[in-house]
């Protein structure tokens, strides 16, 4: 195995990206087998965004996710056994099987939750940053959102508020070109979403979302600025989802040529090439992939063997005005 701090870091990134990919590929299979109810939104292809961005954080920071959030939680250190159990509605899941894919949180590691509402997490992140500022805490909030969410009113209201109050929050747009089936060119005349930062007087930067190094560098800069009390920033990562919008989407709105061109820039493939150039063998890389596949198999076994919540718990954690 190669040595050096950079190679160790990249091997860690490589392992995390495979963990996300294997987890989501297995979810796709489970849904196809009819073993899961509801829906799920997969982010295969966007792993460099989740891994690179969260790597810029430190313990105590917080993350707010969206409906496509499995990778964000895994990258932050989430337990894939508890995640799989949550998806299967088991009591050992992060939310006792009540939240599922779109309402999963892990407060103990600063993960404030996925969110089934497009743009719904943006004001949550802004409020968490306001709380940190009010309490004098040296924490930063990282908010993941998609290009579709950038057209919601919550985007403008939150960024404007964060800017005028100088809040410690980094808004990270994973621009995968499609809001469901709507291509970004039809949704907005300004397709470089980082330019929107100019309207709020905050830094805005665009990065290659398939390059984990580029994502890390941009997020480190933004997080350091926020931690110094210099306010929010907007990052736009150009990326691509290999699957459809959700499990029922057969992707008739985009060409296979387009998909193949993006798959040639698979973030795992790109990082693997860098590692091989640094001296890591193909066998070592394959071993990592195999280990993560086995870990996902174990997560499925754990979930299937876990009990459902007892009937008497039905009224727990239920709130009504």
Description:
- The protein is α/β, with parallel strands linked by helices.
- It has a single domain (5-308), classed as Rossmann fold (3-Layer(aba) Sandwich).
- It contains eleven helices and seven strands.
- It has helices spanning 5-32, 47-54, 70-76, 80-87, 121-135, 153-165, 184-187, 212-227, 256-263, 267-277, 282-305, and strands at residues 62-64, 141-146, 169-175, 178-179, 182-183, 204-208, 233-238.
- The protein has a five-stranded parallel β-sheet, sandwiched between helices. It has a two-stranded antiparallel ribbon with strand order 4-5.
- Helix 6 (153-165) links the parallel strand 2 and strand 3 (169-175).
- Helix 1 runs antiparallel to helix 3.
- The longest helix has 28 residues, at 5-32.
User: How many helical stretches?
Assistant: 11
Overall mean pLDDT stands at 93
Q: Distance between termini?
A: 58 Å
Q: Regions with pLDDT < 50 over 5+ consecutive residues?
A: none
> From the alpha-carbon coordinates, what is the Rg to the nearest angstrom?
19 Å
What's the total count of β strands? 7
Number of domains: 1
Shape: globular
Strand content: 5-15%
The level-1 CATH class: Alpha Beta
Helix content: 40-55%
Strand order of the largest sheet: 1-2-3-7-6
CATH topology: Rossmann fold
Instruction: Report the sheet with the most strands, covering strand number, pairing sense and barrel closure.
Output: 5 strands, parallel
- What is the CATH architecture term? 3-Layer(aba) Sandwich
Under CATH, the homologous superfamily reads Thiamin diphosphate (ThDP)-binding fold, Pyr/PP domains
Structural class: alpha/beta
Order of helices and strands: HHEHHHEHEEEHEHEHHH
């Amino acid at each position: 195995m190669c040595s050096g701090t950079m190679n160790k870091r990249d091997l860690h990134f490589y392992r995390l990206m495979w963990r996300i990919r294997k987890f989501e590929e297995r979810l796709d299979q489970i849904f196809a087998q009819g073993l899961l109810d509801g829906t799920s939104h997969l982010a295969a292809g966007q792993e460099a965004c989740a891994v690179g961005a969260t790597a810029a954080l430190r313990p105590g920071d917080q993350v707010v996710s969206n409906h496509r959030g499995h990778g964000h939680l895994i990258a932050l250190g989430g337990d894939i056994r508890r995640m799989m159990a949550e998806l299967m509605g088991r009591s050992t899941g992060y939310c006792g099987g009540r939240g599922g894919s779109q309402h999963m949180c892990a407060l103990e590691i600063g993960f404030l939750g996925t969110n089934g509402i497009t743009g719904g997490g943006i004001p949550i992140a802004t409020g968490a940053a306001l709380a940190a500022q009010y309490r004098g805490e040296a924490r930063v909030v990282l908010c993941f959102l998609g290009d579709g969410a950038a057209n919601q009113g919550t985007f403008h209201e939150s960024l404007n508020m964060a800017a005028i109050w100088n809040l410690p929050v980094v808004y990270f747009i994973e621009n995968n070109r499609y809001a469901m089936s709507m291509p970004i060119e039809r949704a907005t005349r300004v397709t470089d979403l980082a330019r929107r930062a100019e309207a709020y007087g905050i830094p805005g930067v665009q990065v290659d979302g398939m390059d984990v190094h580029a994502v890390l560098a941009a997020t480190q800069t933004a997080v350091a600025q926020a931690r110094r009390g210099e306010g929010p920033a907007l990052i736009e990562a150009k990326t691509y989802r290999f699957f459809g919008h959700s499990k029922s989407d057969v992707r008739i709105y985009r060409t296979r040529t387009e998909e193949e061109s993006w798959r040639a820039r698979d973030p795992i493939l790109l990082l693997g090439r860098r590692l091989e150039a640094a001296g890591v063998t193909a066998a070592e890389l394959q071993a990592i992939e195999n280990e993560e596949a086995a870990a996902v198999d174990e997560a499925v076994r754990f979930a299937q063997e876990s009990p459902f919540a007892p009937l008497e718990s039905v009224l727990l954690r239920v709130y009504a005005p």
